[in-house]
C-alpha cells in the first residue's frame, strides 16, 4: 500500500474530477487519503472555474484574432483621487497567453497584482501613458484619461490593429471597441488594468517620500478620512489636483 505522501504525489497530477473519482485510491479508507482526495476535487473544481472565466474573458480577443494580429487592451488608474497623475496602460497579449485568475486589478490582492505584473511585462507588449496633474486640471479628468491612454498606445512596440478600451473611445484612427467594465470582460483590458494600477501605486509610494505626512503610500491619493485630515492640516502639495474638491476650497482660502 502506498504511503499518503506517495498518494499525494500521484493525485496532484490529476486534471479532472473523473480521474479522482475513478482512482484506485477511492477504495482506501484511511482518513488522510479521503481528505486528500476531497482536497484535490476542490482544487480541480477551482481550476476549472478559472479556466472557464478566462475563456469567457477572451471572447473579444478570440473573435478579433481571425482578422487582427495585434489587439491592444487599454485601461487607466487614478481618475478618482484628488492627488497624483492618471496612469494608463496598453497591453498586447501574445496568442496563446494564459494567466488564470487575471481579472480587474481592484479585485486582486497586492501580492497577486505584483505577480501578474511580472508575468504580463515578461510576455506581452505593453505601453504606459501618463497625464500630469497640470493636464488634469487644465483638460478635466476625462480628457486627461483619454490623453494618457493615447500615450500608452503610442508607447507600444507594435502598431495595434484594434483597441479594446475600458468604457471610453480614443478616436486615434484605429478600429476600437469600447467595453463597459472592460477590465472584468476582456483579458487584454484586465492585463492593462494590472499594469496601470501597479504603476500608479508605485508612483504614489514614491510621492510618500517626497511629500511626507499625507500618507500617499496608503490611500494612493484618494480622499480618505486620513488624507483629508492631512490636507487640512498641511495644506495642498504640488501633486494635489487644484480643480478637485476639497483641494480647490483650501487653495481658494489661502
TrEMBL record:
Protein origin, superkingdom: Bacteria
CDD domains reported for this sequence: RNase_HII_bacteria_HII_like (cd07182)
Cofactor info, note text: Manganese or magnesium. Binds 1 divalent metal ion per monomer in the absence of substrate. May bind a second metal ion after substrate binding.
InterPro entries, per database record: RNase_HII, RNase_HII/HIII, RNase_HII/HIII_dom, RNaseH-like_sf, RNaseH_sf
Classification via Pfam families: RNase_HII (PF01351)
RNase H type-2 domain boundaries: 69-254
Protein name, UniProt field: Ribonuclease HII
